[in-house]
Design a protein that fits this description.
By secondary structure, the protein is an alpha/beta fold. The protein has 16 helices and 14 strands. Helix content is 44%, strand content 13%.
Length: 449
Amino acid sequence: MTLNSVSFLQVKDAFQYERDHLSAPFSAEIEKLFNNDVIQPLNDYEKFKRLRLKIEIEKGRPCVIVLRSVPNSVPLKPYPEIVSNLTSLFQTYLNSLLKNEAMEKREKEQALLLSQLEEEKLYLQQEVSSAYAFSDIIGSGTEMKEIYEQMSQVAFANSTVLILGETGTGKELIARGIHKTSSRKDKLMVKVNCAAIPENLIESELFGHEKGSFTGAVERRIGKFELANGGTLFLDEIGEMPFDLQVKLLRAIQEKEIERIGGRTVIKVNVRIIAATNRDLLKEVQDGNFRSDLYYRINVFPITLPALRDRKEDIPALTSYFINRFSRNAGKKVNKITSSAMKDLVAYDWPGNVRELEHLIERTILVSKGDIIKEVHLPSERKTANTEETVEYIKTNAENEKDHILYVLKKTNGKIYGRGGAAELLDMHVSTLNSRIRKLGIKKQQLFS
């Protein structure tokens, strides 16, 4: 008789209940011992149907190993000697397994920490090169004073903030201001632009992935939630978040835990969420483009930023700030602007808000020849308050995209997928096309109008 006829039945110990995956390696390694004839043959007496080995492993925790012999076998060694030999062998081997597992765990934790530190270093380098800081928030009018008051009310809380406003109103600056005056100011504020990341990559960007979890995942990568742990996660353009991913984001915010793509363990995160959008999220909810439960979860403390046309008293201060900044960057000595040029700036409606003003001043500085700005070249196709020019309407990218998708859907009689479908003609994945249809508000009745 050989030890191949002896079967390992079970391992019962405190570790099994804490880490179920340990029982499988124990079983495999013990079977390997049997196959290599390391243990002397164990045979059956009628009164010893099962052999129980009581072993003390790590920190005195008890482990009971139950062995069973094959019927009708012949005993080769007395029972006490078998018990002694097996107990000693298993105790030594199990302790070795536990130590190896502890070392592997420490190595994985160290590798993860190193990866996280490298990600933080890269992110901080990018932030240092950023053009903006908290001091860049300019404005002393009534509307901005109300914004400052709201920022001071919510800064030291951990409540989720939703910043609303048109494109170019400075939503990121307000988010940074809240973070810099919060209790999390010594940790990172990590930004994720939901509109700039491809739909098939945004989940990995937020939650990270394990090596080999998908094609191209050649190494483990931590996501922005882990990178922002202890700090703030700024979700810019959250209205562009793919509908299918919104439920995972909701769970991460509510449960404060995530799972990497391809991972099997839950990772706890302590992150303060600040979201921003230029969309009317309530309308997006009504149109079925945004989850209502996610909307109510992030709409805890909304801050609505005014458009620049609604706070024109701040235009002189903003202009002066941008002149000094871009003159210094360009190595020029421009430091003034004429009153007539300033009147033109104040009279303009600024559809692009502060960002449009910023870029206009930068361009003006680059082409200026003296130290005074005498003229600013405002867009001529838009109507200003001191002119009677006819407005030439120009469609936005979203409107042009909607028209094009509608045109193709009408050509295919509403067929989206399959040969000759709209997805094939547009060279888009079916799920991506469906997502764009929802976001652009394309309705079935429009196809036959």
